[in-house]
Amino acid sequence: MEGDKVEGREKVAEVLVDYFKKLFGSSTWTNPVQEEVYLGGPITDGRIGDRECEALVAKLTAKISVWASKNLSYAGRNFLWGAKAQYTKIPLVNWDEICKAKQAGGLGFRDLVSWNLACNHRLLWDIASKKDILWVKWIHNKYLKKDNIWTVPPKPNFCYYLKKILLRRKDFEGMPIREKYDVQGGYEWLMGDNTKVQWNWFVWNKFTIPKHQFIQWLGWKDRLQTKTRLARYMNISTHCVLCSVHIEDKEHLFYSCPYTRGIQNEICNWVGTRWIANNDKEMLGAIQQIKGRKNRGIAIAAFAAICYAV
Which PANTHER family does this UniProt record tie to the protein (predicted)? Predict the structure, then answer.
C-alpha cells in the first residue's frame, strides 16, 4: 500500500481489497458482512437458529462422511451408518451399547450428548466453587448474590445460559462429591455401569485384526444376521447355507457345522494348536487351558479368522 494516493472512502476500500488479494494470493475477495458468513459461520445480530446453521450442518456432515470412509472398514461403516453419513437403517446394536468402553462390551465411541452434559457440569462446578475467573464473579454478583447454586430456582431475571446450566443439575443428582471435578469423570458417571464383560480380552487383543474383531464383537453381542434371526422378519428357510442340514444360528456356524469343523481342523494342523468347544463359554475355557501365551494368541487369532471367513 506504500506510495498509493488514497482519496475518498470508496478509493480506500478498493486499495484495501487489492492489498488483501495480494496478501492471501487470491484473485477474488468477498465482504463477509455482505455475504453474511464469516469463517464458515453465519453472521447475525440475534440468536442463531436452525436456518442459520444449515450450512454448518452440511459441512460437518460432509466431513463426517469423509472421515468414516477413511477410518472405518466397509463392514464397520455399513453396520454403524449404512455406508452413509445419514442415518439410513436401524442399527443392530443400540447407540448406548456402542458408546460403552470396550472392556464393558461396547466399541468405545464417545457419546457427544453425554460429553456435552459433562462439560456443562464443569461450568456449574466452577460457579459452585467460586472459581477466581471473571465470568464466575459476574454470575455471583449479578444473579446469585447469597443464593446457593445447587438449590436456587431459575429466576426470570437470570440470563438464558444460566437458566440452561441450572436445568442440567438434575442429571448429576447422586454423583459422589469430590474436591475437584473433571469432565472425563463426569462423563463416565453419566454413562453408568461399566462392568467388565468376561470376553473382552478374547475380542480385543493384539493378535486379531480389526475386521475379525468386529465380527467377533457382533457374535458376542448376539447380533450376527444368521438365518434364525432373519427368519423373525422374513419368510426364509433357516437351514444352514453351508451344510444344508442343520438350523443356522451362531453356535452352529462357529462351532458345530461340518463345513466349519473341516476348516478348523485344517487350520489347527497348520498352526500346531487345537481346541474343542461347542459354544462361546466353552471356547473361553478351551483357550485358557492352552499352555503358553503365544499359543493362546495364535488360537484366538485363528478362531477369529475362521469366524470371519464363515
Answer: REVERSE TRANSCRIPTASE ZINC-BINDING DOMAIN-CONTAINING PROTEIN-RELATED-RELATED (PTHR33116), RNA-DIRECTED DNA POLYMERASE (PTHR33116:SF84)
| pTM metric for this prediction | 0.69
What is the distance in angstroms between the CA of the first residue and the CA of the last residue of the chain?
A: 71
Q: Is 37 helix (H, G, I), strand (E, B) or coil?
A: strand
Could you give the C-alpha distances from 174 to 28, 130, 166, 191, 214, in angstroms and in order?
Answer: 57, 21, 16, 14, 35
Q: Please, what's the b/e burial string for 250-269 (b: 16 or more CB within 10 A of its CB; e: otherwise)?
A: bbbbbbbbeebeebbeebbe
Task: Calculate the CA 296 to chain-centre distance.
Answer: 31
The radius of gyration computed from the CA coordinates of the chain, to the nearest angstrom, equals 29
CA distance 279 to 297: 19
Read off the pLDDT of residues 35-58 as tens digits, 9 standing for 90 and up. Answer: 566 555 666 666 777 777 777 788
What are the E-state strand segments in the chain?
37-38, 41-42
Please state, in angstroms and rounded to a whole number, the distance separating the CA atoms of residues 149 and 139. 10
Residue 271 CB partners (closer than 8 Å, separation 6+):
298, 299, 302
Q: What is the pLDDT of residues 239-288, one digit of tens each?
A: 888 888 889 999 999 999 899 998 888 888 888 888 888 899 999 999 99
Nine-digit cell string for 24: 492471501
User: Grid coordinates representing 156?
Assistant: 426470570
Contact between 63 and 56 under an 8 Å Cβ cutoff? The reply is no
Handedness of CA 276, 280, 283, 285 (dihedral sign): negative
Q: In this predicted model, what pLDDT tens digit does every residue of 135-178 receive, in sequence order?
A: 999 999 999 888 888 888 988 888 888 898 898 888 888 887 77
- 240 closest CA partner among 228, 223, 224: 228
The DSSP letter of residue 63 is: H
Q: What pLDDT, on the 0 to 100 scale, is given for residue 6?
A: 47
Q: Helix axis angle, 50-71 relative to 74-81, nearest 10°?
A: 150
